Amino acid sequence: MTAIYLIGLREGLEITLVVSILVAFLVKSDRRPLLRLVWAGVAVAAAISIGFAVLLQVGIARLSSTHQELFEAVASFVAVAFVTWMIFWMRRMARHIGRELRGRMEDAIAVGPVAVAGVAFLAVIREGLETSILFYAAAQGATDATPLAGISLGLLTAVMLGWLLYISAVRINLSTFFTWTGALLVLVAAGIFKYGFHDLQESNVLGGLDRTAFDVTAGFPPTTWYAELLRGMVNFTPAPTVVETIAWLAYGIPVLVLFLWPARPAAAPATTVS
């Protein structure tokens, strides 16, 4: 639940941040009648995202056991790719996203009403579909409603934070927020990456399912709260296979280092001497 809550919080805050920027821009520029177009675009994007999430759950249930394992492996790798791209994109854009969105909205207003709704739709649909895939990948193996509760709480928290930011009741350093949550999501993505390789082993695409890298079950009984917390956050298992362990380390360590590595300052423009 913790990992899925984090996904909902992070993705939800990106969505609410985008929507609040668009709404604030229209309100401050005295274009309130256009707000209904923004909300229409948001509503359509949300409906498509929810429908896509339901389609994933219903469609996969119809597959055979082997095909389910293969699809879950592919879904895991796609989710990892989305997470990786998203955290690096947001780290780069956190300081400039407002200016970029306002520029897009100005261009859309000049085109017409459909373009205004389109800006909101495109801004939300990417995050919505991404959230659906991440939710599906992170919730694999769950047997109760805990994942749904986690994603719902995360999105609700994000909406509350977005509203408070909009009315300026609180001010948080978004760059710092996205850095910390991005680092945690790297660990979550490493766990999903590892789970993908486990599915490949389960479907017999890869061997080595009986070769464990280590076994610390005695120190981390699966029924304890701390073992469950680690499993939920980073897909920790007390007796992982060699392939799973290599996959987790091969993704987690280099990506975390690259993400936390200080960004290079923008190069100053060259000057010429006449």
TrEMBL record:
Short name of any one Pfam family annotated for the protein: FTR1
InterPro entries on file: FTR1/Fip1/EfeU
Superkingdom assignment: Bacteria
A GO molecular function held by the record: ferrous iron transmembrane transporter activity
Topology of this chain in the membrane: Multi-pass membrane protein
Keyword Membrane: yes
Ranges annotated as spanning the membrane: 6-27, 34-58, 70-88, 108-125, 145-165, 177-197, 245-263
Signal sequence bounds: none
GO cellular component: high-affinity iron permease complex
Keywords: Membrane, Transmembrane, Transmembrane helix
Protein family according to the UniProt entry: Belongs to the oxidase-dependent Fe transporter (OFeT) (TC 9.A.10.1) family.
Protein name: Iron transporter
Species of provenance: Actinoplanes siamensis
